[in-house]
Amino acid sequence: MRLLVLGGTGFVGGTVVREAVQRGHEVTCTARGVTGEPPGGVRHVRLDRDDPGALEPLAGAEFDAVVDVAAGSHPWVAEAVRTLGPRAGHWTYVSTVNVYADTATPGQSPGSELRTPLYDAANTANGDPDAYGRVNVASEDEVRDKLGDRAFVVRPGLITGPGDTMDRFGYWPARFARGGRVLAPDTPEQPIQYIDVRDLAAWIVDAATTGRTGTFDGVGQSMALRDLLEGIAAAVGVPVEMVAVPAKDLERAGVNPWSGPRSLPLWLPPSHYGLASHDARPALEAGLRPRSLHDAALGALEHERALGLDRPRQAGLSPEEERAVLKMLERSS
Ligand SMILES: NC(=O)c1ccc[n+]([C@@H]2O[C@H](COP(=O)([O-])OP(=O)(O)OC[C@H]3O[C@@H](n4cnc5c(N)ncnc54)[C@H](OP(=O)(O)O)[C@@H]3O)[C@@H](O)[C@H]2O)c1
Question: Which of 11, 45, 68, 164 to mutate to test the pocket of ligand 1 (most atoms within 8 A of CB)?
Answer without folding.
Answer: 11
